[in-house]
Structures are given as C-alpha cells and as structure tokens.
Design brief:
The chain has 129 residues and is mainly beta. 9% of the residues lie in helices and 36% in strands. The chain is built from two helices and ten strands; from the N terminus they run ββββββααββββ.
Length: 129
C-alpha cells in the first residue's frame, strides 16, 4: 500500500486472510501504518474509536502490527492479517514531521500538528476467509 499526504492508497475494502501489507511512502512527511483488529463486539466506526481516550480505545481493539517510513522510503516491516474480521489502520505521526526521528520511530522531532489520522489518514477494511 502507498502512504500519501494524508491518506492510504492501494488497499481494497476487503482483503483475504493471510494478506501481507507493506508500506511505501509517496508523501512529503514521515508516515506510519498501524494495523489493528476491532474486537468482535465493537459497534463503533473507526473515526469514533479514534476519538476515544487511548486507554478506552485499546480495550476495543487488538494491535496487529505496524511500520514507519520516511518520504520516498519503504517501511522495514510488513503486517500480515491472519484472522477474519473488521480492521483499521491509522497514522499517528504529527502533521509536519518530515524526518525520521532518532531513537523511537514514533517521536515527532518538534512537529506539533495533529496526528495524520485527524486529517484523513485512516482506513477501515475487512479481512474475509
């Protein structure tokens, strides 16, 4: 899949179990792909989940994996979705982050904008049998 400023491109609404997702960053900012499975009893939409306090939202999802990539780069990791269900992916990097930070990939190196998912960098999808 491809990350652009500020969206994910190249992922259909439904993928098969066992699909492996990789990240190519075609944007001008650092992007990440964090993939999570919504628990079976969750009725909230992806935007509703992302609006919840983090502690509350984490009780409603299961993290599957993720990766980061600087502008023009590919993420080092891939994520395989093994279980059928409803999934989401989001970029939590702050708007304005143009360089991969030293140390923790999620650090913002001074960028103070909202997370990319707030400006549209999120994607709901279903994994089917």
């Amino acid at each position: 899949m491809t990350a652009v400023d500020y969206a994910f491109a190249g992922i259909p609404d439904v993928v098969s179990t066992g699909t492996t997702l990789g990240l190519r960053n075609a944007g001008s900012e650092v992007h990440e792909m964090q993939v999570f499975r919504l628990n079976d009893d969750v009725a909230q939409t992806l935007p509703e989940l992302l609006a919840l306090p983090q502690e509350e939202a984490m009780k409603l999802i299961t993290m599957v994996g993720g990766t980061f990539a600087g502008p023009g780069e590919d993420g080092e990791d891939a994520v395989t979705v093994e279980e059928a269900g409803n999934y989401g992916m989001a970029c939590f990097i702050p708007v304005g982050t143009r360089e991969m930070p030293e140390g923790s990939p999620g650090a913002s190196q001074g960028a103070t904008g909202p997370p990319h998912f707030v400006v549209g960098m999120l994607k709901a999808f279903t994994v089917g049998e």
